[in-house]
Specification:
rod-shaped, alpha+beta, 2 helices, SH3 type barrels
Length: 105
């Protein structure tokens, strides 16, 4: 009789552990995984919209104007000597082209 009570008590402990574990997994998903997926989609959309004439900043800190686009790379014109540099599209961290004030209104 006591053995049955011990087995039931241990089984209940596993259930409470599961009840505590599931919300933790949900919190990790909503606070870590989901925001990262959103940032990744936004960054990929930004890369897909690149065009010549855009001013960009790379992850290495290069700032330049896009001169040419290829499948997986871009050519940048980098001041002050107007050097032409080829970098991968994945190295672009942000587009810094400023839209005119009238276009925003």
């Amino acid at each position: 009789m006591q053995a049955l009570a011990i087995v039931q008590a241990q089984g209940g402990g596993a259930m409470s552990l599961l009840i505590m574990f599931l919300p933790m997994v949900a919190l990790i998903y909503f606070f870590l995984i989901l925001p990262q997926q959103r940032r990744q989609k936004k960054w990929q959309a930004m890369l897909d919209q690149l065009k010549t004439g855009d001013k960009v900043t790379t992850t290495g800190g290069l700032r330049g104007v896009i001169v040419a686009l290829k499948d997986d790379s871009i050519h940048l014109r980098v001041p002050p000597d107007n050097l032409r540099v080829e970098v991968t599209k994945a190295s672009v961290s942000q587009v810094t082209t400023q839209e005119p004030e009238e276009a925003k209104k």
